[in-house]
User: Fold DDE Tnp4 domain-containing protein from Bombyx mori.
Amino acid sequence: MQRPPLYERSPLYYFVAASLLENEEYSSREVREITRRVALRKKNNPVDINDAEFKNRYRLNKESFKFLCNQLKQKTSLKASSRISLELKVLCALSFYATGSYQRLVGMAKYLGQTTVSKCVKEVTDALVTPAILNTFIKFPYARADRDVIRNKFFAKYGFPGVIGCIDGCHFHIFTPKKEVEHLYYSRKHFHSLNVQMICDSDCRILNVNAKYGGATHDAFIWENSVVNNYMQSLHRNNEQVWLLGDSGYPQRPWLMTPILDAVEGTPAYKYTAVHGRTRVAIENTFGRLKNRWRCLCKDRTLHYAPVKCAKIITACCVLHNLAIEFNIPEPEPAEIENPNLTMTISEHIFQENTTGDGLIRGRAIRSILVDKINRLHT
Assistant:
């Protein structure tokens, strides 16, 4: 006599069993894929390419890359993991900064998954913006001897006395932020951005960067609330005759020289403004060179991150920009990107202020002296 079954299996049983088998198979594939990638990473050394190709991929040469990795090892918490070396993490981030490519495309070239690439970019970016690294690569001339070197270079190159830096703000495209803060990042140029203030020397080396403010913030507001503004005022109080050069979006001050917009052609004021414009082109060139080398910052490569992370990426690229200058690494071939303005410009948003302010009056008095001096120098 045939024994009846102890129980009947329901359709749910077969569904759960099939799901478990499918999940097990998927997990097994994942493990095999991870193992394959680890093996490929060990087998293929990404540094083992010729120098030209290395610079083309990563925008640095091998010497500067090794120097950067040593600095990160010594001064930051960036470490190698059991599967990925510190050097590979840095190369992964450099590739992303250099191309602005989507992370999956970056990862495919390095045998890394998108999640791993994202983690590498975050870790390296955080390391590059730590104070220890920032203070190594981006340094405002707080020592008198450093200011004298910069001032003499500006004068030798452009014939404008007393300049220790050129200042301006640059808008970097970012993805639409959260609705509650979106208004802070919508610029007068009608896109979402960070308005990043930078100061550079005559060699386009970045001396100071401030990426804290959204595109809706005016250049003058960022300047008035900056540490460098307070420091420049302290130099003026100590009777040191040095200044920064800014466009008409900044207030005229004894420590900040701006152009004379209503200068009549052929007058000393017109000559001053022309020399001012030729000198201040250094900051426009700095923006152009920064975006050309690190193309994740181009307007066609909108940063798809929250504003805080975008600010870190921009600052990290400024660190790498100065590193490239330090090692005399040639510029990459120009791309079809936002071109720097190579001639004197008038700010689209001219600064308006009370014309009776003490700082403005003293600033105009010093500028008048400069006008006469530059007229004699360039006659």
Q: What stands out?
A: Residues 292 and 335 are 7 Å apart (CA to CA). The chain has a mean pLDDT of 87. DSSP finds 13 helices and five strands in the chain. The longest helix spans residues 11-43.
